[in-house]
Specification:
It is a single chain. The chain is of the alpha+beta class. Helices cover 18% and strands 13% of the residues. The protein is built from two helices and two strands; from the N terminus they run βααβ. Strands 1-2 form a two-stranded parallel sheet. It is elongated.
């Protein structure tokens, strides 16, 4: 925390499909193929809820300048 008690943290999703995103993709394309993730399934908005709630909680009170990757293991592969 800075002198002004500013905390900067973020959650980084690994590509979540939605109606808005689908408008920009070619037919048959996906945001990230599920076989590119360790969990081998598509990511949903619900997958972010726990991580974002943690980052907004007192439990994350000593974190700052961090990015929590919520991508089903995509960055490991």
């Amino acid at each position: 925390m800075s002198a002004h008690r500013t905390v900067v943290v973020t959650g980084a999703a690994g590509g979540i499909g939605s109606e808005i995103v689908d408008r920009f993709l070619a037919a048959g394309d996906t945001v990230v193929a599920s076989d590119q993730r360790s969990f081998h399934r598509d990511q949903t908005p619900a997958d972010l809820v726990g991580a974002i709630l943690f980052l907004a909680s007192d439990g994350a009170g000593f974190l700052t300048g961090q990015t929590l990757n919520v991508d089903g293991g995509l960055h490991f592969l």
